[in-house]
Amino acid sequence: MLVNRRRILVEFGDCDPAHIVFFANYFRWFDDCTTALFLAAGLPIRELFPSHKVLGIPVVEATAQFLAPATHGDELLVESTVAEIRKSSFVITHKFFHGKVRLLEGRETRVWAAAHPTEPNRMKALPLPKEVVERLSGTHKKAGKKSARTRR
Amino acid sequence: MLVNRRRILVEFGDCDPAHIVFFANYFRWFDDCTTALFLAAGLPIRELFPSHKVLGIPVVEATAQFLAPATHGDELLVESTVAEIRKSSFVITHKFFHGKVRLLEGRETRVWAAAHPTEPNRMKALPLPKEVVERLSGTHKKAGKKSARTRR
Amino acid sequence: MLVNRRRILVEFGDCDPAHIVFFANYFRWFDDCTTALFLAAGLPIRELFPSHKVLGIPVVEATAQFLAPATHGDELLVESTVAEIRKSSFVITHKFFHGKVRLLEGRETRVWAAAHPTEPNRMKALPLPKEVVERLSGTHKKAGKKSARTRR
Amino acid sequence: MLVNRRRILVEFGDCDPAHIVFFANYFRWFDDCTTALFLAAGLPIRELFPSHKVLGIPVVEATAQFLAPATHGDELLVESTVAEIRKSSFVITHKFFHGKVRLLEGRETRVWAAAHPTEPNRMKALPLPKEVVERLSGTHKKAGKKSARTRR
Fold first, then answer.
1. Which residues contact B67 (CB under 8 A, 6 or more apart)?
2. ipTM of model
3. Per-residue pLDDT tens digits for A58-84
4. Which helix (H) or strand (E) holds D72?
5. DSSP per-residue string spanning B63-93
């Protein structure tokens, strides 16, 4: 399965009066890291969503365990992994580190969602396109690349 | 156990390009609703934390199931409950509604935390003060009130 | 010209490690208060923008003077006014108070903007519709109301 | 005067339903870029503020002109400059670019502020320390560096 690493610099404005990252910001970073994971898989979301006529990949479940706090000036490393792919949803896990210290373990389930055909302000989950499944699972092969690999 | 209700108006800036609330904002609202729950319990956090020499009540675990989306202009009702009180931590649940539609069910575990005595940038969980336990569990009685109740 | 008042409760997560509102949040509140001003004028933006086929009322200039800080638990009062209406733009001023203390004076210029006809990721300012001008300037009269007033 | 450049990747969650950066986020980035400018000047704020016993450098005036919108996936370049240094305040300007397109020109005035000696929830501006003035104005010389430069 696909893994991606991304660095995050904790800013002053990310922190609360307890001088630690306000916890909701980690979920904002979940989203940024999932975007980065998709990009690493060859799936830039800005083009991906309109080209497939979907609204996006909304989160249907998110969970996080906060193991240690971080503060501004800390440079974090986030390791994001595609943990599971289902018919119309998938699971991403995120692990946040500051140096060797593990700060957070999180998990989000997202769906491939379009506007609901009849009800406004609702969404409808659709089956994940084959290309998205292949790219997220790391089994995607480009035509050119495939033959190149076959030759070796 | 204590329950509190709070209204939230979803603003334009709370929503993302999919025209729904950006999911991390719900966790921001978890915090606001926990503050409101504490206030309803007679525990205003601005005075509570310095008077007990703690940094606050950081979240050590948070989870949410997103059942239906909301968009700007929606007025949400959040029902927050003290679900469990342990020695130095407690669990709050939040249920978000838009009219009769249940939008979200969430749960957060928080600790009563002071600055770590020896290591900077770390926190240390402390036993919950008796008054906080009583107020969160709804068993707190003021001296005056108690006698008043006894009289009836 | 139209004036609207709105209350804002400063939350823990709105504040930074200096224990005061992180200044960027005031600009978020500018947006919320402009939405409330539009609503008070009979212009709910969720219906207004799609019905006029515009993207919204993006800010082209914003400025604020921060006169005194606020912290969590403070309840602020914001007074928002339509200060000027031009052909395709308008100026809103916001004054923030905490009790009798004036905290902030701000000003934003916004345009009535649609998607650019030929260039993606750009916008195009359009003339403000007559109804919007009338409602923001407080000169709008409903057919029924007008006659009711004339009668008095 | 000191100049610093910093890249910002616009994320999905930074954008609003009009598919452009929600304008308040630029002011969040002002803060991040000022922190980066201070770091480039040899003034890491996490150590700087406590070592000088100040609360920070709160903004007393901020202004921005929004010239063109940006959306998620855009990588912005921000050029931040110390434009003016006064007794207890200073002015920073920020210019945001996307490729060759200028997106924003902004300006913020900040003060060097400590807790107010007698009134809680207030701040007091103090004269900027000599080292901070020298570093922000680019005239600071380290003992070792100075002689090295003199030798040339």
1. A60, B102, B103, B104, B105
2. 0.91
3. 999 999 999 999 999 999 999 999 999
4. none
5. EEEE-S---TT-EEEEEEEEEEE-SSEEEEE
Q: Are C108 and C48 in contact (CB under 8 A)?
A: no
- Whether C32 is catalytic is no
DSSP C134-152: HHHHT----HHHHHHHHH-
Check if C15 contacts A (Cβ < 8 Å). Answer: yes
- Residue in C with minimal Cα distance to D115: C18
- Whole-prediction pTM: 0.93
pLDDT at D67 over 70: yes
Q: pLDDT by residue (tens digit) across B94-108?
A: 999 999 999 999 999
- Select from A10, A14, A22 the residue whose CB has the most chain C CBs within 10 Å, as the one to mutate to test that interface: A22
pLDDT tens profile C98-121: 999 999 999 999 999 998 888 877
Residue A55 sits at the chain D interface (C-beta within 8 Å): no
Angle at D125 (CA atoms; ends D123, D126), nearest 5 degrees: 130
For range D39-63, the mean pLDDT = 96
CB–CB contact A31 B22 (8 Å): yes
How close D23 comes to chain B (CA, Å)? 9
